[in-house]
Structure formats: structure tokens, C-alpha cells
Design goal:
Blueprint: E1 2-6, H1 10-21, E2 25-29, H2 33-40, H3 51-58, E3 63-66, H4 69-75, E4 78-81, H5 96-106, E5 113-117, H6 125-135, E6 143-147, H7 157-162, E7 167-170, H8 174-188, H9 191-194, E8 211-214, H10 216-247, H11 251-259, H12 280-293, H13 299-323, E9 330-334, H14 349-359, E10 363-367, H15 372-378, E11 383-385, H16 389-393, E12 398-401, H17 413-419, E13 424-427, H18 434-439, E14 443-445, H19 459-462
Parallel strand pairs: 1-2, 1-4, 2-3, 4-5, 5-6, 7-8, 9-10, 9-12, 10-11, 12-13, 13-14
The structure holds uridine-5'-diphosphate-xylopyranose (UDX) (2 copies).
Length: 471
């Protein structure tokens, strides 16, 4: 199948590389010349497991890059639209990029084409895309508009694409449904997984992938409802964590007890400093806005957002209660990305907290395995960047864990304690067991669990009684 993917950001680039791996011929289109030049040169603009392998496998053969949208449309039978849909000031999705792409596609429809929304868009977008293409002169029988939402998590986007829980295709004609079924056939009939060069199957996935065919409107809603539900799950457990803190219960035990109910499930129940990233915050807001426009006041989603914001404020209060005053304090920070496994700092709760602490007069030394370069472009004063977690901790009044990177969960605790000026750890991601931390001499604060102290004695007192470093 000959496929054009418009927009080579996180979503488009991963989708394009994976379509090529399924055996299709793909043209990736973007209007950012610098990005295109980098991609053509063999650079990989985002940190994503298996993406470098797929790009080098297919670049220049099954996968080409272009700024010529109309040329790509003429050369393809299916066009996936994966341009950004950022939030407007009122929280709605800004669909102007989608509209301009639809306009351009219209002028190049020279035979039957299926135009597929891959970006997360509100319900009714497919109707608008259809209208725009018609308004600009395309014949009504010469194209269909379909919706094929992606459920890719950053960091595991390639395996999420190739080993999905489900593939959702929203089509209002059998002809377009058939085209989309054919594109995904290697995943749904399992032939992809028999190949010796297939990307390895991750745990907890089942193959082959089921395909769910719906109307376009239902598919658009499936995407928004899925993201809103996951965000709600996170806010729910964060609210439960706050109750745990008030009554002295342990949220991990509560999660275990709740999550083993197969109707609820254990995933996406990790309490922390709130959800971030380019999707959940934007999609919850956009779903809220489109529901209102369609006549339903979805106030549950307001509360999901409120709890999420409150979670960061609660963490800041925790830092204050651990350190008393903040001005001039030196803090080690582990994690800047919005979650582990990615270099993305969009809507990162970690970055929000770093900025808030800098505003309060703290001095920060931060370490993140992938997101330091991007952070450096945004913040430069009163922040230093370290080359390891231990270096970030050196001489700090306390260490903050803000991103759930795997390597932060396996630190050498004795070494960490030696590096810190005071052995205080404030963990926004619950990566450690409070008792283990206390046994290693730390005063340890986390989310939804009681703070732990070595022998119940606060840290500053424990260290020689005068707050100086242990001998
Ligand atoms: C974006 C949306 O934010 C997300 O909701 C949606 O599901 C998919 O698209 P992402 O891939 O992360 O996600 O966006 P981004 O990294 O901003 O990539 C968009 C790309 O489209 C950029 O490379 C941009 O240069 C390109 N683009 C944008 C075009 O080629 N043409 C345009 O008119 C606008
Ligand atoms: C999300 C959806 O999972 C994916 O299906 C969709 O296509 C795009 O949006 P992503 O934004 O990459 O993916 O990250 P995700 O792993 O969902 O995490 C989002 C945020 O929630 C992160 O800030 C993460 O730290 C936080 N989170 C996640 C929690 O706080 N607790 C959890 O249990 C899970």
C-alpha cells in the first residue's frame, strides 16, 4: 500500500516508520524544513525505543521524506493526518493545521483516496474535513474520511503500535474500511509476528491484535474517552493517596487491594505528582470543551483536572514541610521529562515543580537521562545539569525524585546518602520503600504514605546534631 503521513512529530514519525516495517511504501510529509533535513540525514529527532532501528532499516527505501504534500497525496492511496492539535486558550483543540492540510489535500485528489485522521481530534472533525475537501473542489466519490486513533505512549510508542491492545478504525463506508483493514493485515492476521526481523514482543501483550471497526464519530470519541478515563484513573488514585496521607494508610497497599479486582485492574493507578505530557492535559480539556459544545456539561472532567493541579501544589507543600524555608536551599532533582523513557518535557509536572522551586529561590542541580538538553533551552538561571543522579545529589539539602525513570529506582542508597548534605529524599513517584529508606538513614517523604525517619528522628538532628555532614 502507498501511504502518505502528514506531520512527522511523535505520532507521525512512529506511525510512518511502523507502516514501513509492515511492508508499505511511506512518504512522511512535514512543513518544517529543518526537521526534514535532519530526518533525511539519518538523525532521529526523538528518544523512542526501536525507532532508530526502524528508521535506518527503511530510510530511503520504503520510507522517504518530503515537504511536497500534494505530490505525496498524488503518489498515495491513503493519507494519514498527524499534525499537531494544540489547545487554544479556551481549552478547545486548535484544528487550524488539520484544516489547512485538508484544503491542500483536496487539490491533489486524482483518484480514490482515504484521508485518515491520526491526530487526536474532537468528534465531528471528520465531517469538517470532508466538507473542507469538498468545498475545495474534490469529487464526493473520489475520497472517504476515516478515523484511526493512535494509543501510543511515548517511550514505548513503537511496540504500542506493533503490539496494540486493539486497532480502532472508524469508517463510514465499507470501501475505506477495507483499505484500512488491508494496511493493518500483517498485525491482525499475525504474519508480522512470524518474521525473524520483527520487533520483539513486549510482556503483557497478546497477538494478533483485534481490530474494532466503528463509525468515524465513535472512533473519534473512543480516543478522547480513553485518554480522559486514564487521566481520571490517575486523578482518582491521587485523591485516594491524599486521604491515605490524612489517615496514615499506605496507598501502595490500597492500590494492590483495589487493582487486583479484575474489573478495575492495577495499571494507571500509580499515584505521583500528577499526569503531564502532550496528550492527557490537552485531551481532557478538549473533551470537556467538545462535550459542552454538544450540550453535555462534563463536570467530572473539571474535577480530574483540578485534582491533577492540586497534586503538584501538595508536593510543593511537602517540600516546604521537609525543608522549612526554601530561599537559598540547594536541591538535587532527579527527572525532568513528563514521565520515564522519553525526552519530552511538554506539560511536564517535573518541570512545573522545578520552575516553582526556582521562583521560591532554590538552587537546583538536575539530572535526567534524556531531557536535559530540552530543559536547558527553557531554563538557564539557578539551575545546573549533572551527569549522573549522584552528581545531582552532591552537597544538596535534599533530593527530589520527579520522573519515574527506571534507573532512579535502583540507586546505591549508601552512596546517595554520602553525597547528600542532608539525607532527605522527597519522592514524587513512590520509587522506594519507606522502611528501606529509613533503614539506610534517610528521612523519606513520598505520596500517599507516611514519611519515614531513621529511628523516628528527623534528619537534620540525626546528622551530628548541628546539621553538618556526617563524618
Ligand atoms: C500531535 C498532536 O499533538 C496529537 O494530539 C495528535 O494525536 C498527533 O499530533 P505530535 O506528533 O506529538 O502529536 O505533534 P508534533 O510533535 O507537534 O508533530 C506535528 C508535526 O506536524 C510537526 O513535525 C510539524 O512540523 C508538522 N506540521 C504541522 C505539518 O507538517 N504541517 C502543518 O500544517 C502543521
Ligand atoms: C498517553 C496515553 O497513554 C496514550 O494511549 C495516548 O495515545 C497518548 O497519551 P503518554 O502521554 O505518552 O500516553 O504517557 P502515559 O504513559 O499515558 O503517561 C501520561 C502521564 O501520566 C505521565 O505524566 C505519567 O507520569 C502519568 N502517570 C501515568 C501517572 O502519574 N500514573 C500512572 O499510573 C500512569
Amino acid at each position: 500500500m502507498r501511504i502518505a503521513v502528514v506531520g512527522s512529530g511523535y505520532v507521525g514519525l512512529v506511525a510512518g516508520a511502523c507502516f514501513a516495517d509492515l511492508g508499505h511504501d511511506v512518504i512522511l510529509v512535514d512543513n518544517d524544513d529543518r526537521k526534514l533535513a535532519a530526518l533525511k540525514n539519518g538523525q532521529v529527532p526523538i528518544h523512542e525505543k526501536f525507532l532508530p532501528e526502524l528508521l535506518s532499516r527503511h530510510r530511503g527505501h520504503r520510507l522517504t521524506f518530503s515537504d511536497d504534500l500534494q505530490g505525496a497525496v498524488r503518489a498515495s492511496s491513503v493519507i494519514f493526518v498527524a499534525v499537531g492539535t494544540p489547545p487554544t486558550e479556551r481549552g478547545e483543540a486548535d484544528l487550524s493545521y488539520v484544516e489547512s492540510v485538508a484544503r491542500e489535500i483536496s487539490g491533489a485528489v486524482d483518484g480514490y483516496k482515504v484521508v485518515v485522521e491520526k491526530s487526536t481530534v474532537p468528534v465531528y472533525t471528520s465531517e469538517w474535513v470532508r466538507k473542507i475537501i469538498l468545498r475545495n473542489g474534490a469529487d464526493p466519490d473520489s475520497f472517504d474520511v476515516a478515523s484511526n486513533p493512535e494509543f501510543l505512549r511515548e517511550g514505548t510508542a513503537v511496540t504500542d503500535f506493533l503490539f496494540p491492545d486493539r486497532i480502532v478504525i472508524g469508517c463510514d463506508s465499507e470501501r475505506s474500511a477495507e483499505v484500512l483493514r488491508e494496511i493493518y493485515a500483517p498485525l491482525t492476521d499475525g504474519t508480522y509476528y512470524q518474521r525473524t526481523d520483527a520487533i520483539p514482543q513486549p510482556d503483557r501483550t497478546s497477538i494478533p491484535a483485534p481490530i474494532i471497526v466503528t463509525s468515524t464519530k465513535s472512533a473519534e470519541l473512543i480516543k478522547h474517552a480513553s485518554n480522559a478515563f486514564l487521566a481520571m484513573k490517575i486523578s482518582f488514585i491521587n485523591a485516594v493517596a491524599s486521604v491515605c496521607e490524612s489517615v496514615g494508610a499506605n496507598v501502595n497497599q490500597v492500590v494492590h487491594g483495589v487493582g487486583t479486582d479484575s474489573r478495575i485492574g492495577p495499571r494507571f493507578l500509580n499515584p505521583g505528582i500528577g499526569y503531564g505530557g502532550s496528550c492527557f492535559p490537552k485531551d481532557v480539556m478538549a473533551f470537556r470543551a467538545v462535550a459542552r459544545e454538544c450540550g453535555y456539561d462534563f463536570r467530572l472532567l473539571d474535577e480530574v483536572m483540578r485534582i491533577n493541579e492540586d497534586q503538584r501544589e501538595r508536593f510543593l507543600r511537602k517540600v516546604r514541610s521537609a525543608l522549612w524555608t526554601l530561599r537559598g536551599k540547594r536541591l538535587g532533582v532527579l527527572g525532568l521529562a513528563f514521565k520515564g523513557g522519553t525526552d519530552d518535557i511538554r506539560e511536564s509536572p517535573a518541570l512545573f515543580l522545578v520552575q516553582a522551586l526556582l521562583q521560591e529561590g532554590c538552587k537546583i542541580t538536575a539530572y535526567d537521562p534524556a531531557a536535559m538538553e530540552r530543559t536547558q533551552e527553557m531554563i538557564s538561571s539557578n539551575i545546573k545539569f549533572a551527569s549522573s543522579a549522584y552528581e545531582a545529589a552532591t552537597g544538596a539539602d535534599a533530593l527530589l525524585i520527579l520522573t519515574e525513570w527506571e534507573e532512579f529506582a535502583n540507586l546505591d542508597l549508601d552512596r546517595l546518602s554520602h553525597e547528600l548534605k542532608y539525607p532527605i529524599v522527597i519522592d514524587g513517584r513512590n520509587l522506594y520503600d519507606p522502611e528501606t529508606m529509613a533503614a539506610h538513614g534517610f528521612t523519606y517523604y513520598s505520596v500517599g504514605r507516611a514519611a519515614s525517619h531513621p529511628d523516628g528522628v528527623p534528619a537534620a538532628v540525626l546528622k551530628n546534631g548541628n546539621g553538618t555532614k556526617k563524618a
